[in-house]
Amino acid sequence: MVRVKSRYLLCEVNVSDRSRLLLLDDRAVATAVRAAVARTHGDYGSALCTIGFSVKYLNAHTGIVFLRFPKRSYKLLWSALPFITSVESRGQKIPCSLNCLHVGGTIRTCQKFLIRYNTQQLHLMLPQCKNEGKEEKQQVRKAILNCSLPGGNKEAFEDELEIEEDEEE
Amino acid sequence: MRWFVETTCGGRTRGVFFRLCVDDLFLMFFSFQVDRLCRCSSPAGARVTDRFNIMSGVDEKDESAVYRRVVLKNASPYHYLEVCLVLQDESTRLSAVELKQFIISGLKSLYGEVGAALTFDLLKYDEDKLTALLRVYSRGLVKLWSSLTLLGSYQNQACAFRVLQVSPFLLALTGNSRELQLD
């Protein structure tokens, strides 16, 4: 009985229209998850959701969410995530779906996974930007080399944000 | 081929088998009470073999006198519940379909869509006494019973489900000493 354990789910929000992704808010995502759990698992599910659940981190540019669930009931609550069809924020309904990438015991392990995942994504994007000029290729290469473990991960995040936005345009 | 030695430790009817090499064999005779000794390739064969059975006489007597208790876990895939619905207004009548719909609505409010999808059957229904026999898979018993407990109102009148009998075997529900009438 030394420590309260929880599970952190690293989810990706898939939206068809990328510009609407920026409207996302962590409270909006939390209400969407609670509503889906209440629909799927009833009063029992919403009771499980009140105590340990929170949205720990939301990146509106890349659509990455960290959800925190209590360890005892995370599988039940995880099973309700595919039933989310839209997130309502600031009066607008954004049709989206939540896709879970990783389950970790701490935020740190989720961050380590996220850095590796982002480097893989950048590696995938590199061959696609061959025809668009050498500057972007150099930026992508620099970002890949800059990615490091939790000490300097904030810089790695910011670099990747800018580059992903450039790539899309 | 190995040597198998069966010993009875502490009054058990079935002994423990030891698989040994020849050197340990003599050590076994000194340290344990040996019931059976044989040389074959597997413990199953050793159990069957009776050729070198040292204490064979004792075993046979034990077999007939010993009391065996058989305990079955998860013996039946279904559980059967006999329930009675008690309503505030005693004259209302429900049909079988309405009762099943009512129970499903209770499951839905407590356990959501997943709970409402729990399959259960209404095997017998007595409309006058509002008594029903339900059958549910054993894994769903807790969900069904808890939703019956928390079901409080039917069409704006207070109601309660009284669970009279629960058993994994249908035959056990035929006799009930509470409702026994000696006439």
Describe this structure in words.
The complex is a heterodimer of chains A (169) and B (183). Chain A is an alpha+beta fold and 169 residues long. Chain A is 47% helix and 24% strand. A 5-stranded antiparallel beta sheet of chain A has the order 2-3-1-5-4. The radius of gyration of chain A is 17 Å and the shape is globular. Chain B is α+β, with helices and mostly antiparallel strands and 183 residues long. Chain B folds into 2 domains: 64 residues, no CATH class; 102 residues, Alpha-Beta Plaits (2-Layer Sandwich), CATH 3.30.70.3250. Chain B is 31% helix and 30% strand. Chain B has a 5-stranded antiparallel beta sheet. A 3-stranded antiparallel beta sheet of chain B has the order 2-1-3. The longest helix of chain B has 21 residues. Chains A and B meet through α1 of A and α4 of B. Chain A: Component of ribonuclease P, a protein complex that generates mature tRNA molecules by cleaving their 5'-ends. Chain A: Pfam families: RNase_P_Rpp14 (PF01900). Chain A: Belongs to the eukaryotic/archaeal RNase P protein component 2 family. Chain A: InterPro entries: Pop5/Rpp14/Rnp2-like, RNase_P/MRP_POP5, Rnp2-like_sf. Chain A: GO terms for molecular function: ribonuclease P RNA binding. Chain B: This is Putative ribonuclease P protein subunit p14.
